[in-house]
Design brief:
Helix content: 55-70%
Protein name: NfeD family protein
Number of helices: 3
Strand content: under 5%
Mean pLDDT: 82
Number of strands: 0
Keywords: Membrane, Transmembrane, Transmembrane helix
Number of domains: 1
Low-confidence stretches: none
Distance between the termini: 59 Å
Transmembrane segments: 6-23, 30-51, 57-78
Shape: elongated
Radius of gyration: 18 Å
Length: 95
């Protein structure tokens, strides 16, 4: 199956990183980081034994957890701070 190939995860992460460059707002960056990290874990064979035999369900579970952790970390680092609001002082159509 394709979910047990490390290069598929890394390629998906790179594709999501490219999509992130085209779409503003850090929407796909967490998914890109999660996919690359999942590919690294599968490629290096880190989980090796126990609950993480490389199956599609386990790989998707690892991807989901890593993506949420990456997204929350990025939100804490570069997200909107508490109490910060965007103020619009002028209309761009006014001269």
């Amino acid at each position: 199956m394709m979910f047990d190939e490390w290069w598929v995860w890394v390629a998906a992460g790179l594709a999501l990183g490219i999509v992130e460059l085209l779409v503003p707002g850090f929407l796909f960056a967490g998914f890109a980081i999660g996919a690359v990290l999942t590919g690294a874990i599968i490629g290096l064979g880190i989980p090796g034994a126990g609950w993480m035999n490389v199956t599609p369900v386990n790989a998707l579970l690892v991807f989901a957890v890593l993506s949420v952790v990456a997204w929350l970390s990025m939100r804490a680092i570069v997200g909107v701070r508490h109490g910060q609001v965007k103020r619009i002082d002028r209309d761009i159509n006014d001269n």
